[in-house]
Design goal:
- By secondary structure, this protein is an alpha/beta fold.
- The protein has one domain: Rossmann fold (3-Layer(aba) Sandwich).
- The chain is built from seven helices and eleven strands.
- Strand 3 and strand 4 form a beta hairpin.
- It is globular and about 50 Å long.
Length: 295
């Protein structure tokens, strides 16, 4: 799962501007490259290493793109990469921002709107997650088939802004124009990509919590009874935003540790980011095969 704590002594995050214009952000990117990606990827905690070694046509700090929030969490580089990966033109968000950094759901899902504006028509979301189900031992890969989102955040807000208690004023049912959905056809392609790559990947439901603290054992038992096989602190709102854009999503969780109460060991962010190295060798060929299937 993503970071459970922010670095000590960290200043308050710089809030993204209240307004976000995808066309303005797109103009900044197009000054650097005219690459036309058909596939977009978001690489979660520590997973940005998978994009290293690729000769990218453009590498743009998200801080240079107007309206995008900056990640303040270790393991998130905060760059937008465009170029060819696995022989196909893609765009990669190397790291993400989170609600627990002080950003609203509308703000930390702006990158999804930009990826869509760039022309991508398939979105691959990845994250580091804690294993809940016995089959989700550390080192496992889980293809997300659905989610239990307990963040109480929606990415589409009414102009009135935020309500007390961290809940956001939203338009329409649950603040969405579409139900958050992981595309069944993309999930099937991911399963085939795993088979072709010789990689074992399980299917499962993702539990999504707000953070920044790790869950309690009681909360994990609750998620288990609700059907969640793994848990993280991202991905849910991004999927909701993509669904509102008719932007098909496939999600992959890298299980880096047991969730609270599933192991006697105490959880730490350093353990999570360090364990990503164990899943990267399996995730890279899966992603490359998936890119070929989606582009």
């Amino acid at each position: 799962m993503t970071a459970a704590r922010l670095p000590r002594g960290r200043p308050e995050p710089q809030r993204a501007p209240d307004a976000f214009d995808p066309d303005e952000a797109l103009h900044v990117v197009r000054r650097r490259t005219h690459a036309a990606p058909r596939v977009a990827l978001v690489l979660g905690s520590g997973l940005g290493v998978l994009a290293e070694g690729v000769a990218w046509e453009a590498s743009i700090p998200t801080a240079d793109i107007p309206g995008l929030p900056r990640s303040t969490v270790p393991g998130h580089s905060g760059r937008l990469l465009l170029g060819r990966w696995a022989g196909r033109t893609v765009v990669v968000a190397q790291g993400r921002s989170h609600g627990y950094e002080g950003y609203s759901a509308e703000q930390f899902t702006r990158v999804v709107r930009l990826l869509f504006a760039l022309g991508a028509r398939a979105l691959v979301l990845t994250n580091a997650a804690g294993g809940i189900a016995p089959r989700m031992a550390p080192g496992s890969l889980m293809l997300i088939e659905d989610q239990v989102n307990l963040q109480a955040l929606a990415p589409l807000r009414a102009p009135a802004g935020a309500l007390a208690g961290g809940l956001e004023r939203v338009e329409g049912a649950r603040g969405l124009t579409a139900r958050p959905t992981y595309a069944p056809d993309l999930l099937a392609k991911a399963m085939r990509a795993a088979t072709v790559a010789g990689v074992r990947a399980e299917r499962g439901v993702l539990g999504v919590m707000l953070g920044p603290s790790y869950e309690t054992p009681a909360e994990i038992r609750m998620l288990e009874r609700m059907g969640a096989a793994a848990v993280c602190m991202s991905t849910g709102a991004e999927t909701a935003m993509a669904s509102s854009l008719d932007f098909p999503v496939v999600g992959i969780s890298c299980v880096t540790n047991w969730a609270a109460g599933k192991s006697p060991r105490r959880l730490s962010h350093e353990e999570v980011t360090g364990a990503v190295a164990a899943t990267a060798p399996a995730l890279r060929p899966l992603l490359e095969r998936l890119i070929l299937a989606l582009a």
